[in-house]
Amino acid sequence: MWLLIKTIDRQRLTFMLSDGQRVVRRMSRAVGQQQAEQLLLSLDKFLRDGGYALAGLRGVVVVSGAGSFTALRLGVILGNTLGYVLDIPVVAINAGEMVEAEFLSRIRPLSRQRHFAAVPIKYSSTPHITQSKQ
C-alpha cells in the first residue's frame, strides 16, 4: 500500500491509501487548531479502521508547496519519519486541485525506488516565523 499525507491546511488532515491502481481508502477530517495533536492519532485510526498497518506500507507521498508553514512541516516530517523507520521511499507532490490523480501518477515511479531518501520541505514563500527586532 502507498500512503498519501496531506496537511497543507492547518485545520484539516487528509490521508489516502492506494493499492497501486486506485485509492482504496481515504479520510479527510477537520481538526481545528489541533492538527499537531491529532496527526498521529488520526493516522493510526485511519489505518486500523481499514484493517491496515504501517508495516504494510511500500511508500509515502506527501503534499508539499503552498500552505501553512507549520502544517507543511508536520506532513513532510511525518512522511520522512515513516520512510526512514520503515526504509521505504518518500516523494512529494505539489498541492493542487488534482491531489488524487497526482498521487496515483507518482506510485509507479515510487514503486521502483527501494529505500528511503528524505524529501525537502518546499515553501511557497520565505518563512516568517518571528518578527524582526528594530
Tell me what the structure shows:
- The chain is α/β, with parallel strands linked by helices and 134 residues long.
- The chain has a single domain, classed as Nucleotidyltransferase, domain 5, CATH 3.30.420.40.
- It is 35% helix and 23% strand.
- It contains 3 helices and 5 strands, in the order βββαβαβα.
- The chain has a 5-stranded mixed sheet, with helices on both faces.
- It is globular, with a radius of gyration of 15 Å.
- The N and C termini lie far apart (52 Å).
The number of E-state strands comes to 5
Number of domains: 1
> Helical percent range?
25-40%
Categorize the overall geometry: globular
Could you give a short account of the major beta sheet?
5 strands, mixed
Derived from helix and strand composition plus strand pairing, the structural class reads alpha/beta
In whole angstroms, the N-to-C terminal distance is 52 Å
Spans of at least 5 consecutive residues with low confidence: none
Reading the helices and strands in chain order gives EEEHEHEH
Continuous helix count: 3
Average pLDDT for all residues: 83
User: Which CATH class applies here?
Assistant: Alpha Beta
Placed side by side, the strands forming the largest sheet appear as: 3-2-1-4-5
Question: How much is the radius of gyration in Å?
Answer: 15 Å
Quote the beta fraction: 15-25%
CATH architecture: 2-Layer Sandwich
CATH fold call = Nucleotidyltransferase, domain 5
Report the CATH superfamily.
Answer: ATPase, nucleotide binding domain
Describe the secondary-structure layout.
Layout: E1 2-6, E2 12-18, E3 23-30, H1 35-49, E4 59-64, H2 69-86, E5 90-94, H3 99-112
Parallel strand pairs: 1-4, 4-5
Antiparallel strand pairs: 1-2, 2-3
